[in-house]
Amino acid sequence: MSTKLSAGEKAAVLVEALPWLERFQGATVVVKFGGNAMVDEQLIEAFAQDVVYLHLSGLRPVVIHGGGPQITAELNARGVESEFRGGYRVTTTEVMEVVREVLVDQVQKQLVQAMNEHGTYAVGVSGDRDEILLTQRRDVLVDGLATDVGLVGDIVSVNSVPLNDLIEANLIPVLSTVGIDAEGNRYNVNADTAAAAISIALDAQKLVFLTDVAGLYRNWPDTTSLVSTITVSDLEAMLPILESGMLPKMEACARAVRGGVPRATVIDGRVPHCLLLEVFTDEGAGTMVVPDGGNDD
Predict the structure, then answer these.
(1) Which of 7, 10, 60, 102 has its CA 20 to 30 A from that of 164?
(2) Consecutive sets of 10 residues in the chain, 297 residues long: mean pLDDT of each?
(3) Are 24 and 206 in contact (CB under 8 A)?
(4) Positive or negative torsion for Cα 256, 52, 267, 152
(5) Full-model pTM
């Protein structure tokens, strides 16, 4: 059953947003979009509306997206079995071709189209363009042993110039996390890691991860133990005990804050318009990571 707000309640919501509009006016906000929200048409539309709302409100959003479920579905459709080692997708040359095709031609295209339903705002770009994500091949640890997982890469550096050019042109970059090395080889790059690196390179004021849980819990599965705000040192002390699905996002939050991003937040992407709730309400949403000593909004 839907609940209608009175005119006064609607006005109160708008007034509550005012100090946050003032604080983040002109600020770069990096948003990583992933999880179940990426395969739900209504949530994609709500996310697109939120990003355009940020843009029209004077913020400078940059969207980084994943695409794991879509990549797995496309590999299955082609009869290619997905293999994971140490939490990373084993990426052969064949798999890498599918990864880039799905990320750029499917996921990115869908997000850009959803945002541009409201005007010409979003532009798709891939990390292998102009060495935006300069990458080197990496191994992963499996049972303590370095293991080859194919064309999986670590980011060496971020070329922020093409992204800044788009931002200065009053556009919203929507980035697919395909990396490239100095020899022109393309790599599958973890989108959480990419979001942290890009937020640092762009001097972002905020990094937001949309995921499949409400945030970080001190004592999972006790849902009353949700952490609202945590310092980066306290978070780093918790990293060894986190579940594998949450670990990359919280590691990325810590890396971003250590790199100078004032706040990094994990929120529940299954909640429509969660991004607006996080940016423009006093209560916010999810778990915010801040530098040691505070800066908790």
Answers:
(1) 102
(2) 60 70 86 82 92 94 94 94 87 96 95 94 96 94 86 96 97 97 95 96 96 86 86 94 83 96 93 86 82 70
(3) yes
(4) negative
(5) 0.91
